[in-house]
């Protein structure tokens, strides 16, 4: 009951319309301070981050030795207190560590605690960039070649990590470095997806089923640039990118609802600003704003993007506007704007599908997903 009440309050508190929002201001620096404070006063859940470290501590660890993937998780050899990738924990003795559901829940809880502890990143939350990390790690999948996807964590390496679409994600990878150090048995691939799952749930989103079993790959598995969406394009481009992964029109629109979270940065993508007035809470406001707000081209020296007429503090990208100019897409925008429950159901399903792209679960014996318990 407490969790339900918390979620109900958060969505009600952050929901806004151009005419009535109590949270709108024209200043980027203060636009989100009141919602953040209000939310924290009423809810135990928090989201967090800190500025990215100057250098990433996530790198390839060589000489791992024998590793057998089984049961959707891993059997890992470890030595007491050696602090290596192969150790279970400092208190355990030498042997084979087999992570269980409760071990993954401990990782979830650690990430959630860090999200609550650290609040000096965008809009007071590291949650959106963790979702973006999991999204971009998964969205490189090509169903024809079977390459890419969340199995590999190849963004650790410069060819892929330096792709324009991945600019700024070193912040998310560095945020997770202490978690990887504390739980060295989990692969980067599983950790990134678990972090995205945690972030969605801790930001009042739907429950996302999680299956472990991903393995880390080396630099040779890096995918070519251009597999992720180009925000300056339109509907044809969107279909080309997402059909390649195996998604349909409905799923494209449902996945786009992740733009309820976070913001663009001029020094990363070139675009600038948040999509909604509540960028750290999962809602269906993205669809409502697409339909109900008046959007004009932003007059500035950056790439073409839209800004809301009412406050000029929100933005939409050309790929966002393609969802309302295309009739096949717009029917789903209409449905999700009217029914948040339907959006949550479809969003959970399509995010689960996205996060499992390229993972050979058929080679494991454990197929039952883990349902993580939120921390509040």
From TrEMBL:
Biased composition (Polar residues): 24-41
Subunit: Forms a one-to-one complex with cytochrome c.
One Pfam family here: peroxidase
Protein name per UniProt: Peroxidase
Sorted UniProt keywords: Heme, Iron, Membrane, Metal-binding, Mitochondrion, Oxidoreductase, Peroxidase, Transit peptide, Transmembrane, Transmembrane helix
Function as written in the Swiss-Prot or TrEMBL entry: Destroys radicals which are normally produced within the cells and which are toxic to biological systems.
A molecular function (GO) term: heme binding
Family, as annotated: Belongs to the peroxidase family. Cytochrome c peroxidase subfamily.
InterPro entries in UniProt: Ccp1-like, Haem_peroxidase, Haem_peroxidase_sf, Peroxidase_I, Peroxidases_AS, Peroxidases_heam-ligand_BS
Top-level taxon in the UniProt lineage: Eukaryota
Catalysed reactions, semicolon-separated: 2 Fe(II)-[cytochrome c] + H2O2 + 2 H(+) = 2 Fe(III)-[cytochrome c] + 2 H2O
EC number: 1.11.1.-
Organism per entry: Lachnellula cervina
Residues annotated as transmembrane: 59-78
Region annotated Disordered, chain positions: 22-51
GO CC, alphabetical: mitochondrial intermembrane space; mitochondrial matrix
GO aspect biological process, one term: hydrogen peroxide catabolic process
Record localization: Mitochondrion intermembrane space; Mitochondrion matrix
């Amino acid at each position: 009951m407490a969790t339900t009440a918390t979620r109900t309050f958060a969505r009600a508190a952050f929901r806004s319309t151009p005419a009535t929002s109590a949270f709108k201001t024209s200043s980027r620096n203060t636009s989100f301070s009141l919602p953040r404070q209000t939310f924290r006063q009423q809810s135990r859940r928090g989201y967090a981050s800190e500025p990215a470290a100057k250098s990433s501590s996530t790198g390839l660890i060589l000489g791992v030795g024998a590793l057998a993937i089984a049961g959707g998780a891993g059997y890992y050899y470890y030595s007491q207190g050696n602090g290596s990738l192969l150790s279970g924990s400092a208190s355990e003795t030498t042997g084979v560590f087999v992570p269980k559901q409760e071990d993954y829940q401990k990782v979830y809880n650690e990430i959630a605690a860090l999200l609550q502890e650290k609040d000096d990143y965008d809009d007071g939350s590291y949650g959106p960039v963790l979702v973006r990390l999991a999204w971009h790690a998964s969205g490189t999948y090509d169903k024809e070649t079977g390459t890419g996807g969340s199995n590999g964590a190849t963004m650790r390496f410069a060819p892929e990590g330096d792709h324009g679409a991945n600019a700024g994600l070193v912040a998310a990878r560095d945020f997770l470095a202490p978690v990887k150090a504390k739980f060295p048995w989990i692969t980067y691939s599983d950790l990134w997806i678990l972090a995205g799952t945690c972030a969605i749930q801790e930001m009042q989103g739907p429950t996302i089923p999680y299956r472990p079993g991903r393995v880390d790959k080396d630099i040779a598995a890096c995918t070519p640039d251009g597999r992720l969406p180009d925000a300056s394009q339109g509907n044809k481009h969107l279909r080309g990118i997402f059909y390649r992964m195996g998604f349909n029109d409905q799923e494209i629109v449902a996945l786009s609802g992740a733009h309820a979270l976070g913001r663009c940065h001029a020094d990363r993508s070139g675009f600038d600003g948040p999509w909604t007035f509540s960028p750290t809470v999962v809602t269906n406001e993205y669809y409502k704003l697409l339909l109900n707000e008046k959007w004009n081209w932003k007059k500035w020296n950056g790439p073409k993007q839209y800004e809301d007429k009412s406050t000029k503090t929100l933005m939409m990208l050309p790929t966002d506007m393609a969802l309302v100019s295309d009739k096949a897409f717009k029917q789903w925008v209409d449905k999700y704007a009217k029914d948040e429950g339907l959006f949550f159901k479809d969003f959970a399903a399509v995010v689960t599908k996205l996060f499992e792209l390229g993972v050979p679960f058929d080679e494991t014996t454990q197929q039952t997903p883990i349902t993580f318990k939120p921390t509040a």
